[in-house]
């Protein structure tokens, strides 16, 4: 049973750039928008090969509440991408998280299962390399959202941070894999409008040869992201730099 991940976010925020960076290790700046693409991939986690399906959404969002809700119902875990240079990201992120939470809770009720304590979702601010163009200053609001919904929050750049992007996707796929055994009945069997999807397959597994310090970084980054936790990590990094 594959792990299913859905990626959403406003047009032009870099959703596809982040995904392609993870899958192919390449950065490509411009992509066609307005279509949904389903990627099939194989990831290797702790010596196990995991089949992964990743839905890069565009038309789901354009179809509005019902379209995005249907896409979220299909997935095991969720990734919302926003542009750090824009000001209006937090309200959209909150709507996405609220919808994801509602979809999961309703599915749990229908299946007679307990509601999940923590939402299997990640907020990712992209385009930190363009901060000189103006920064939306959403970080504090996003940290509050990540605390409220018990999800994780990162800022990165598809152009410059391939290692962090690997860690983000690896952690989210691992979390989705763990959730399947606990809540596989919470997801729908098929995607809406599947015949209209473009589908791409990446046959070569992403072999992540992480060093011990990389694994420690993944573990520390994958803690629930609160404002106080972020400050603590920053202080630790400063102490290490001084040492």
Automatic annotation (TrEMBL):
SMART domains: RAB (SM00175), RAS (SM00173)
Disordered: annotated segments: 221-243
Keyword field: Hydrolase
InterPro entries, alphabetized: P-loop_NTPase, Ras-related_GTPase, Small_GTPase
Gene3D superfamilies, alphabetized: P-loop containing nucleotide triphosphate hydrolases
Pfam families (UniProt xref): Ras (PF00071)
PROSITE patterns: RAB, RAS
Reactions it catalyzes: GTP + H2O = GDP + phosphate + H(+)
EC primary class: hydrolase
EC number annotated for this UniProt entry: 3.6.5.2
MF (Gene Ontology): G protein activity; GTP binding
Family: Belongs to the small GTPase superfamily. Ras family.
Classification via PANTHER family: RAS-LIKE FAMILY MEMBER 11 (PTHR45704)
The name this protein goes by in its record: small monomeric GTPase
């Amino acid at each position: 049973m594959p792990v299913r991940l859905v990626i959403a976010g406003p047009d032009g925020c870099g959703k596809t750039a982040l995904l392609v960076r993870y899958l192919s290790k390449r950065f490509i700046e411009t992509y066609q928008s307005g279509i949904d693409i389903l990627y099939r991939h194989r990831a290797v986690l702790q010596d196990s090969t995991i089949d992964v399906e990743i839905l890069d959404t565009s038309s789901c969002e354009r179809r509005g509440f019902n379209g995005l809700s249907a896409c979220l119902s299909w997935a095991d875990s969720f990734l919302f991408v926003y542009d750090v240079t824009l000001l209006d990201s937090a309200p959209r992120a909150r709507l996405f998280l609220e919808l994801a939470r509602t979809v999961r809770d309703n599915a749990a009720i229908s299946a007679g299962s307990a509601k999940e304590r923590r939402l299997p979702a990640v907020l990712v601010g992209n385009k930190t390399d363009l901060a000189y163009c103006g920064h939306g200053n959403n970080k504090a609001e996003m940290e509050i959202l990540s605390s409220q919904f018990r999800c994780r929050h990162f800022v990165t750049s598809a152009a410059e941070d391939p290692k962090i992007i690997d860690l983000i996707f690896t952690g989210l796929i691992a979390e989705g894999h763990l959730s399947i055994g606990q809540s596989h009945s919470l997801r729908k069997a098929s995607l809406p409008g599947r015949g209209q999807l473009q589908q791409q397959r990446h046959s070569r597994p992403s072999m992540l040869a992480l060093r011990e310090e990389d694994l420690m970084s993944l573990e520390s980054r994958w803690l629930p992201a609160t404002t106080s936790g972020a400050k603590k990590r920053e202080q630790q990094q400063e102490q290490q730099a001084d040492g």
